[in-house]
Automatic annotation (TrEMBL):
Name the UniProt record assigns to this protein: Heparan sulfate 2-O-sulfotransferase pipe
GO annotations of cellular component type: Golgi membrane
Family under the similarity heading: Belongs to the sulfotransferase 3 family.
Entries under InterPro entries matching the protein: Heparan_SO4_2-O-STrfase (IPR007734), P-loop_NTPase (IPR027417), Sulfotransferase (IPR005331)
Organism of derivation: Pyrocoelia pectoralis
Length: 376
């Protein structure tokens, strides 16, 4: 009788087992994509900025410099900004009133990898490492009283320290608290929204969510199988990006500029000039460095020079340790999206693209200022 006894397995447990089984069966597929990942890392590492010399920067020599770099230099020259590339003026680290980094990380811009970099650097450079706990529902826009609590929490950490959280830009000085060192990362906005689309559909995403919050229901299989191209071409509500539209809560991950604009109501409408200008102003006035995912060499170089206490040795740790062995949040199940579909989306992301280009140009200005200082 004992041999024929039936054991009851709770429904939640069987759901988790099923999800974990699916993830395991996909494990081999991940490794077949490993070569592709390695090639991509090599592409990123061999960036055009590595080829530029200080003479090319100062003279605008079109010699062997890449076309993208020449275009950027011409823009700076035409606006008269090439003559005012002063590392001191371009570095907001000098405005910080406490040795605490506030990394209000944007989702799907490589921020998990960047967080791991900071964790390793905290051991090497001896500073405190703190991050927000996993939340059931992550709110990025906070009420004033919650902003105050957040600013007080961060200011309470012993210097030097770093604090990491998905949250909109929070102006500490508005609450009479000392300004931290603000840093962040941005990414091509269309590539980012595609990455987010498939990230929330990845099997391991729901395994992690179920383990943390067992009562969260599983999504509709039809929703999980819906690809981005079909979503855009069929005018699906999820993939409509309408200027002036407001979506609150965890579902509004369409734009990264919101993480720089702040918590104000003016920041909520999608693709508006008002939100764009507020985001630009915050970057210009408060952020020490806003890195660019597609330009990692420049990002790491600028961080090492503009925030050296925290980022000394960042390039070495990233290329020798993290990029070789870590696959944090790399969604190998994300398919290629046709360029024509991306172009459809880009037409509705005009302000987001402008913000991304603004951050990229600022990062390049910071790099050029370093080069000119090294080779006057």
């Amino acid at each position: 009788m004992i041999n024929h006894r039936r054991f009851h397995i709770p429904k939640r447990t069987s759901e988790l087992i099923a999800l974990m089984a699916i993830s395991t069966t996909l494990f081999l597929f991940i490794h077949t994509r490993d070569l592709s990942s390695k090639l991509k890392k090599m592409e990123v590492k061999m960036q055009p900025e590595d080829l530029v010399s200080a003479n090319q920067i100062s003279s605008g020599d079109s010699g062997p410099a890449p076309s993208g770099l020449r275009a950027m230099m011409k823009i700076l020259q035409s606006t008269g900004e090439m003559t005012s590339l002063n590392p001191y003026e371009l570095n907001n680290t000098r405005n910080a009133q406490q040795e605490v980094i506030f990394f209000n990380r944007v989702p799907k811009v490589g921020s998990q990898t960047f967080m791991e970099l900071l964790r390793r650097l905290s051991i090497r450079n001896e500073f405190g490492f703190h991050q927000d706990r996993v939340q059931r529902v992550e709110t990025i826009r906070l009420a004033p009283e919650d902003q105050l609590r957040l600013a007080a929490l961060v200011s309470g950490y012993e210097s030097p320290s770093v604090y990491i959280k998905h949250v909109c830009f929070t102006n500490f000085s508005e609450f009479g608290l000392p300004e931290p060192i603000y840093v962040n990362i941005v990414r091509d906005p269309v590539e980012r929204v595609i990455s987010w689309y498939y990230y929330i559909r990845a099997p391991w995403y729901y395994v992690e969510r179920k383990l943390a919050f067992p009562d969260i229901p599983l999504p509709d299989p039809k929703w999980l199988k819906k690809d981005f191209e079909t979503c855009v071409l069929s005018n699906d509500r999820e993939c409509k990006y309408l200027s002036g539209e407001t979506r609150e809560g965890i579902g509004d991950h369409r734009r990264q500029s919101m993480f720089f604009c702040g918590h104000a109501e003016e920041c909520t409408p999608f693709n508006t000039d008002g939100a764009l200008q507020r985001a630009k102003m915050a970057v210009e006035k408060h952020y020490a460095v806003v890195g660019v995912l597609e330009d990692l060499n420049t990002t790491l170089t600028v961080l090492e020079n503009y925030v050296p206490k925290f980022f000394q040795g960042a390039s070495e740790i990233y290329w020798d340790e993290i990029s070789k062995y870590n696959t944090i949040n790399r969604n190998t199940f994300k398919p290629q999206v046709e360029e024509k579909v991306k172009e459809i989306v880009r037409k509705n992301f005009t302000k987001e693209i402008e913000f991304y280009e603004f951050c990229k140009q600022r990062l390049h200005k910071q790099l050029y200022a370093i080069k000119l200082l090294e080779n006057p």
